[in-house]
What we know:
Structural class: alpha/beta
Strand order of the largest sheet: 2-3-4-1-5
Shape: flat
Amino acid sequence: MYRPLADEIRPQSIDEMVGQEHILGEDGMLRRIVESGSIPNMIFYGPSGTGKTTAARIIAKNTNRTLRKLNATTAGIADIKAIIDELDTMLCPGGVLLYLDEIQYFNKKQQQSLLEFIENGSITLIASTTENPYFCVFNAILSRSTVFEFKAISPRQAEKAVLRAVDYLAQRDSLRIIPEAGVADYIASSCGGDVRKAMNTVELLVSAARRKDGALHLTLADAEAISQRSAMRYDRDGDAHFDILSALMKSIRGSDPDAALHYLARLLEAGDLISACRRILCSACEDIALAYPQAIPIVKACVDSALQLGMPEARLPLADAVILLATAPKSNSGCLAIDAAIADVKRGKTGGIPRELQNVHADGTGFEREQGYKYPHSYSHHWVRQQYLPDEIKDSRYYVYGDNRVEQAAKNYWDAIKGSK
């Protein structure tokens, strides 16, 4: 029966694992918990191929509890009940260590069915998820668990796993395998921090390698062909999607055109043209806005062009837009102003609209009276002092001029006019 290489050479101890030094290093918290033998409820959170399942299996192997495994993508309430029925029987005299993979696929009811037994210690839960547990795991489960974040494996650490895999295949199949210079580094760099993906690449590369002079030669060209686009981590409903969008906007806001182009490229390579367009439009209004008002129509034109062109040409107007925004002066004064106004409305700070601003055409018979509205265009500089806000909040101020040239020019203009009245 075929067994994937990634599973065949799965580490059997903490020392054999690569990466996660922050929790599995010499003084890492998770390592110390494992070595203590006292296992609490834990949730392992992080991208695929970073060692979550491996760590859980190692912990399970070192415990005296009966191990039960469930995958939330296929398991249901019946599977949970079957485990609960084993408690306090000869099958599980010391309780159960439940390893629940992909817990984000369990709904609230399924997660709640475990709660009583986690609470009394009959079940020790080790769950793994690729999604943010604070969004997908029931709060009562979270409050009884310790969350450990697993991070993407660095290329340096992944290269160790790649070389180990090559050596393992050579010994297992009695082969002489000669990797071309740069092959291991390329696989490690292109796997996107996913060791499982790197192992799959090694397995395919060895299977497809040409034999020459009694040895299998692993070429860089073959590695590139097998690994193309494999560094992309992208799930439109997952954390990676929102992380890239967030990084794009924050790079624009931080005036770093190189970083902004990098995250735009990741979105475009993943085929997510629409999300890229939405974020760029939002950034034009939120982060540049009144400091360079022309940025908004320019970016809108770039987005329209991109959507009309489609990929791959869409990359051109979007790159122009991103560079323009990243290098433009910044102002969030409009964003702060509308947020402050909305906050007041939500708190009920509204009040009646001043009579002089009401729609006189809506007055009914018997309610006609002089409105008292002063028409600004009838006055010099097209401005006249009068109250526009309701009496209850007449002194409220939401907009503060930004410290950029455009907004300061507007401020000076109105200060000169309003100050003279």
